[in-house]
Design a protein that fits this description.
Length: about 120
C-alpha cells in the first residue's frame, strides 16, 4: 500500500508542480492572479522534484523513513499553507481543494503505515 500512495502522491506533485512552469496562464486562470511568477515557478519546480523522487521511490519499493517524512511532511506543509492563507484571504479558496487532497494523502499514508 505504501508504494501505491507514493506513486499517486508523486504523480500529483509532479503534474501540479510542472503546471505553472509550462502554462502559467492556465494556472492563474484556476488559482487566481499572481505577482511573483518566478516564485510560483520555483515552488512548482520544487514540487515536481519531490514528485519525481516519490515516483522513483514507489517504483523501486524504496520507502524508508526519509521518503515517508518527505511525503507526509510536504503534504502537511502544503495543506497548512493552503488553509492559513485562504483564511487570511491572501490566496483563492480554490486552494482548499488542494488542502483536501493533501489531507487525503496524509490519511492514506497513516493507513498504509499502520497496516
Amino acid at each position: 500500500m505504501e508504494q501505491a500512495v507514493a506513486l499517486v502522491q508523486g504523480a500529483y506533485f509532479l503534474i501540479t508542480g510542472l503546471w505553472p512552469i509550462f502554462s502559467i496562464t492556465t494556472f492563474m486562470m484556476v488559482t487566481g492572479p499572481k505577482t511573483d511568477l518566478w516564485l510560483v515557478k520555483t515552488v512548482g519546480a520544487v514540487l515536481a522534484v519531490i514528485g519525481a523522487a516519490l515516483l522513483v521511490a514507489g517504483f523501486n519499493a524504496e520507502l524508508g523513513e526519509a521518503v515517508r517524512l518527505l511525503a507526509v511532511g510536504s503534504a502537511a506543509a502544503l495543506a497548512a499553507v493552503d488553509v492559513i492563507y485562504v483564511s487570511r484571504k491572501i490566496i483563492a479558496p480554490i486552494y482548499l481543494l488542494d488542502a483536501v487532497a493533501e489531507a487525503a494523502l496524509i490519511a492514506w499514508w497513516a493507513v498504509a503505515l499502520h497496516l
